[in-house]
Amino acid sequence: MGASDKLLGGAMLGVAAFVFVYYTTWALFLPFVSPDSGLHAAFPPREWATRGPALLLLLGLAGIGAFFAKVSAAEARKKAQAGKKV
């Protein structure tokens, strides 16, 4: 395992930990903090705590579906060309 792999893995782990802590604070702990607190300025409006992940889920599913469609179309093309050659 190279040093660059370790560095990349560490960076990815750091980003994931930051996102987890930020989202957990925003979605679970912020409602219990006084609205007058300056902490609310560091976060988007509360409704985006559910809209954001829902949009990311839809985009991810659309990407997976597009990938499967592309692979299926490529396989169908290969089978069609193999049938024409014979």
UniProtKB/TrEMBL annotation:
Signal peptide: none annotated. GO terms for molecular function: enzyme regulator activity. The keyword Membrane applies. InterPro entries: DPM2 (IPR009914). Keywords: Endoplasmic reticulum, Membrane, Transmembrane, Transmembrane helix. GO terms for cellular component: dolichol-phosphate-mannose synthase complex; endoplasmic reticulum membrane. The chain crosses the membrane at residues 7-28, 48-69. The keyword Lipoprotein does not apply. Pfam families: DPM2. It is found in: Endoplasmic reticulum membrane. Pathway: Protein modification; protein glycosylation. GO terms for biological process: dolichol phosphate mannose biosynthetic process; GPI anchor biosynthetic process. It is a multi-pass membrane protein. It comes from the Eukaryota. Belongs to the DPM2 family. Regulatory subunit of the dolichol-phosphate mannose (DPM) synthase complex; essential for the ER localization. Component of the dolichol-phosphate mannose (DPM) synthase complex. This is Dolichol phosphate-mannose biosynthesis regulatory protein. The lineage of its organism: Eukaryota, Fungi, Dikarya, Basidiomycota, Agaricomycotina.
